[in-house]
Each structure stands twice: as C-alpha cells, then as structure tokens.
Design goal:
Blueprint lengths: L2 E3 L5 E3 L3 E2 L5 H14 L3 E3 L7 H10 L8 E6 L6 H15 L6 E4 L6 H13 L6 E4 L3 H10 L6 E5 L7 H10 L2 E5 L13 H10 L3 H11 L3 E2 L6 H8 L8 H8 L14 H9 L10
Helix pairs in contact: 1-2, 1-9, 2-3, 3-4, 7-8
Length: 287
C-alpha cells in the first residue's frame, strides 16, 4: 500500500474503504472485514448514519489506533461555527475516538465558512490531524482558499473514467490540495464495468475493470475509497499495487471522459434540492 504526504506533512494511504450506503446493522462486521483485509483508511460521514458501527469495528479490530486513518464529515444541517463544533463532538463520541485523522465539510452549502473556522480551531488544538472539504467545485474551493487561515488539505470529489476533471486536478495541484475520489466506479452507472476499453485493458493485465479504474486513479495521484460489503471484492479492490498502466492505456481511458458527473451535480437546482431534502428524509441515496 502506497501513501501520500498531505500539505501539512501527514501521511495518508492512497487507497481506503468507504462505508456510504452500508446499513448500520452490518457495518461493524463489514468494516472489521475491510481492516482484516488490509485497509487502514476508513471513510464515513455523519449523514451515513453508521458512525457508531464504524466505531465499534475500530475498537474490536485488534489494530492499534495510530495505524488507522479515520475520516468523517459534517453535513449541511451541521454547518456554522457552533453547529460544526457540536457535530465534531458528536461524531467523535459516535466513533469512540479521542481525535480524528481527517474531518471534512461534506457539501459546499450553508455557512461552511463558519464551519471552516471551527475546523481550523479543532486542527490547531490537535483534535484533527488534517482538514478538508468534499464536493467543492473549483470556484468555491479557490474562494475558500483565498479566505482561509489554513488551506484545505483534501478535496474529496466524484471522480471516475466518465468524469475525469483534469483541469480541476491541475488546479488542486497548484493549491497543494490532495484529490480523493469517492464513487470511483460511479456505482457502475452508464455501463462503467462494460466499457470495451476497460475490458480490453483488464484482459491485458489479468485484472478486473474495477482494478483498472482504481489503478488509473492512483497513478494520477488520486486517493481512492472504494466500497463493497463482500470480502472477496474488498480483496480484489486492494490488489492494485502489483502492476502499472502504460501510457497507451492511460490515453485510452482518457478518451472515456464524458465531462459530466454521474452521481452528483452541485450546480443543478434539482440536485441542490435533493441534498437538502435528505435532511427531512435521510434515505441512503447518493450524496
């Protein structure tokens, strides 16, 4: 497993395990399986409604806390200085931890500037090792960077072969903000796993299309957090560190870019309404 150094010097694994849409009743066992498989970066969020299960898995996994990298996020109703301070305490309590490795603002909505001040203070107090944002498009990320005392160390974004965001990755590199890809498979939407190019490359390396997608991401310096509730898939997703895609392969995958999100578009009015509607009807749909 490779790691990457964030702008503040903290090391983070290049591949982790996400628990979005993993129900509370099975999440503890799923996370224990992931850790036993070799994952050390675990990514959750208050809106996923499974922080307590993740916490129980952390406590019972047998791996020292300092060897794990735990991420959670504050959602829209938790935006604002005081609300985010309270949200942090609640998440920390749910997880049964004394500190977080990474805390993120989940959406670029509400008073996220007040929230960012809270994150900066918690970071300076040593309660969070790294702070960042999630789903921030270039304009909002740049504006936050211009107005922050401490720059975001990570921007977690939807990123997969159908939505490659090359210009955004370049901008993040210039600002020293580490990209991290959620939904690296786009949940299989729009024929992701049956793309002829991915199937051809997968056959070439004796790998699966999923492994090709993950390898393609990490070779471009993008952290990935795939999710599966099946241990054999967890093992498969982790087996990407024994090969490299060549230049021709990377160019073929680049041609798959559709230039638009498959999961979440934070500039569409209907999508903004949907993420706010989640507050009153928190079903486990794509966030």
């Amino acid at each position: 497993m490779e790691t990457v150094r964030l702008s503040n010097g903290v090391m983070i694994p290049m591949e982790g395990f996400g628990v979005f849409q993993v129900p509370e009743e099975i999440c503890e066992q799923v996370v224990r399986d992931a850790i036993s498989t070799g994952y050390r970066l675990i990514d959750t969020a208050s809106s996923y409604q499974n922080e307590k299960a993740v916490g129980r898995a952390i406590q019972s996994c047998g791996i020292p806390r300092e060897e794990l990298f735990i991420t959670t996020k504050a959602y829209i109703q938790q935006m604002g200085y005081e609300k985010t301070k309270e949200a942090f305490r609640e998440s920390l309590n749910n997880l049964g931890l004394t500190y977080l490795d990474l805390y993120l603002i989940h959406m670029p909505f509400g008073d996220y500037y007040g929230s960012w001040r809270a994150l900066e203070e918690l970071y300076q107090e040593g309660k969070i090792r790294a702070i960042g944002v999630c789903n921030f498009l270039p304009d909002r990320l740049l504006d936050l960077c211009y107005n922050a005392k401490i720059l975001p160390q990570i921007n977690q974004i939807e990123r997969h072969p159908h939505y490659q965001r090359a210009d955004e990755l370049s901008q993040m590199k210039e600002m020293n903000v580490q990209p991290e890809a959620w939904a690296p498979f786009a949940e299989g939407l729009k024929g992701m796993f049956t793309e002829p190019v991915l199937l051809e490359i997968a056959e070439k390396y004796h790998k699966s299309p999923a492994q090709i997608i993950l390898r393609w991401n990490v070779q471009q310096g993008v952290i990935v957090i795939p999710k599966s509730v099946h241990k054999e898939r967890m093992e498969e997703n982790l087996a990407i560190w024994d090969f490299n895609l060549d230049k021709e392969d990377m160019e073929k995958i680049a041609a798959l870019d559709k230039g638009c999100p498959s999961m979440l578009d934070t500039r569409k009015i209907s999508e903004i309404k949907r993420v706010y509607d989640y507050l009153s009807n928190p079903v486990l749909t794509s966030l």
